[in-house]
């Protein structure tokens, strides 16, 4: 999930385009890796901390609520530190979140784990605010979309491999271990098994924290150009002539914030819930721990399709309509089927979700003029939907069949996204 911003900049001659793109690629890769490993960690913590499904899904709430809390403050921090320093500090904050997992694992404290997730996402909120503008300014503006697409692919590749990397460590031989824990009646022996399982998370997150600190140091020492925030971006047309005096006088933006909320919600449901969905269908943990990768691969395919087709063959509005319709069809397919077929339909939701952010964001900030920055921040705050929708699913799943709970959560989201694609983005646009 990415957004762009416009700023004026004098790019130093020594700042290599290849170097800048390489650093941004690494940052987008890290964002994808840390975000999409949550699906595996939900299944891991469900066993290690002996949680119910609804309790385990608090991971998504603790993670994504940080976007809402730190969306606007992050822009204030960047104004004070500058963009390059902001990137470095953001990685340091994410590293602190990773290190919190060490005492969390040693004490098997779910509260500490949730704190770690919250701190990680606080760093990611700052990282998104600091890194996204570079996609627009490190080369010609007319080729910015191509650069954003390349960086988006880095993000999705990381999301696809992270469940395999972390899952192979923290959930190794998970089915046998889960069976052993369930059958153990001796409390002391069970505690030892759970403590040993919890300790598996320490090494990978310690290594990740060290990598983040090293990259933060290298970025701070790099020759990345700094953005000049003292000048406002040029505005033309309706963006200049608008007479509106408040951000709340742009209904299509407010509807867009809700659309982002719904989109990120269904995206996270498709990526993070797919493993729990498979477990509910009776599949083994050794199999379901990799399911998030299937959704991310489908998203990657959709991203590549978007690079080829938009805007040459289809418009942003049309791509959003198509994606929303596919979301409705694939969700219905998952509801009406079972086993591997149902999981395939959920994984295909990655394809349906892939082109939504690139379409919703520009439609929502169109012609905001001087309100563009705060409008963008409000849209980023809408990412909190990724934490809220799974909580609704968890609450429903405790009272009704899990397939019905999934259907009732996803269908309204896709219906609203379809509405925004067809009419919502035009409300109050003049």
TrEMBL record:
GO terms for biological process: D-glucose transmembrane transport. One of its GO terms (molecular function) is D-glucose transmembrane transporter activity. It is a multi-pass membrane protein. The chain crosses the membrane at residues 21-44, 56-78, 85-104, 110-127, 148-171, 202-219, 252-278, 290-310, 322-339, 345-365, 377-396, 402-422. The keyword Transmembrane applies. Belongs to the major facilitator superfamily. FHS transporter (TC 2.A.1.7) family. Keywords: Cell membrane, Membrane, Transmembrane, Transmembrane helix. It comes from the Bacteria. This is Glucose/galactose MFS transporter. NCBIfam families: gluP (TIGR01272). SUPFAM superfamilies: MFS general substrate transporter. GO terms for cellular component: plasma membrane. It comes from Chitinophaga oryziterrae. It is found in: Cell inner membrane. The keyword Protein transport does not apply. The gene is gluP. InterPro entries: Glc/Gal_transptr_bac, MFS, MFS_trans_sf, MFS_TsgA-like. Intake of glucose and galactose.
